[in-house]
Amino acid sequence: MAILLPGGAGYIGSHTAIELLEAGKEIVIIDNFSNSNPRVLESIKKITGKDFKFYEIDYMHKEKLQKVFEENTIESVINFAGFKAVGESVQKPIEYYRNNISGALVLLDTMRKYGCKKFIFSSSATVYGEPERIPLTEDCKTGGTTNPYGTTKLFIEQILKDIYTSDNTWDICILRYFNPVGAHKSGRIGEEPQGIPNNLMPYIVRVASGQLKELSIFGDDYDTPDGTGVRDYIHVVDLAKGHLKALEKINKEGKGLYIYNLGTGTGYSVLDMVKAFEKTTGKKVNYKIAPRRLGDIATCYADPKKAKEELGWEATKTLEDMCQDSWNYMANQEYLT
Ligand code: WQD
Hints:
α2 links the parallel β2 and β3. The chain is α/β, with parallel strands linked by helices. A seven-stranded parallel β-sheet has the order 3-2-1-4-5-6-11, sandwiched between helices. The protein contains eleven helices and 14 strands. The protein is globular, with a radius of gyration of 19 Å. The protein starts with a strand and ends with a helix. The longest helix is centred in the N-terminal third of the chain and has 21 residues, at 93-113. The structure holds UDP-4-deoxy-4-formamido-beta-L-arabinopyranose. The site of UDP-4-deoxy-4-formamido-beta-L-arabinopyranose (WQD) has 18 residues, from α7 and β8.
């Protein structure tokens, strides 16, 4: 009985694969390396000392996906196979809707065909749009997403709700990630954005390493304590552990559709992040204040109480861990090259 991880070679997928293997679970990874590197698979094996089956396929390819279900007994699926670059999604909406939504439909249809009805979905705090209130609880209104990436998450959540309504023998868990950062403590796996990063932490790391000149802080006139945007940064290993708890929940509780925020419940500003990074790593992060970025909100952080009460999960890593581990990964890359 194995857990299938589409997109398991990616940033969050690979960290979750490690936690699953270390917990003694059997996994099967499928990935087409559209935003990941085959090297990651070897790193997962080195870190855990464990082996797993891998298929280099696109999860949208129905016949190839069916073969995976024919050749393995898949009991549950954690879907990490989504495009995730906000800016790119504005330029390439068709690609984003096709990969994220059509891909999820092919996957869910195939699961149904093989009687596999346990599904964990990587959603995002972005589904809340302009927050109804802070901290965000799972019952806050969703909608009003400002880019196709966010809209794919919103639509897939709706698709999952409709599937559950039509057939309540599914077990579905929607995990709304806040801002994942950090890397595995080994320094062997981490986030590898292609080209110039859009997200804050990968950008900070590249400024600190000298690859980029300076960070542009998008706005210092928000209604926040220091005027810069506030977010709920969560260490990717904490996030990965949340998936194990979600799996336990749907295996134990039986039928249901569950939604959880995976965040720390603490908001940090852009300037907090820069200062924490400099203090933790001893590296300088040059920055300038730039205009606000279109579509950004002032403040976004989670109320993580529901996940704590119902999953027994809470984030334990500190802001220093997030900074140090992000930096270690980068430093390790430089050392390796
Ligand atoms: C964080 C803060 C920026 C870059 C997005 C997606 C979300 C999730 C995570 C991913 C904001 C500021 C950033 C920079 C800056 N998706 N910033 N200079 O926008 O909260 O969330 O990424 O896979 O769905 O929407 O994250 O890291 O881009 O920004 O000042 O160069 O840092 O304005 O306040 P965001 P982020």
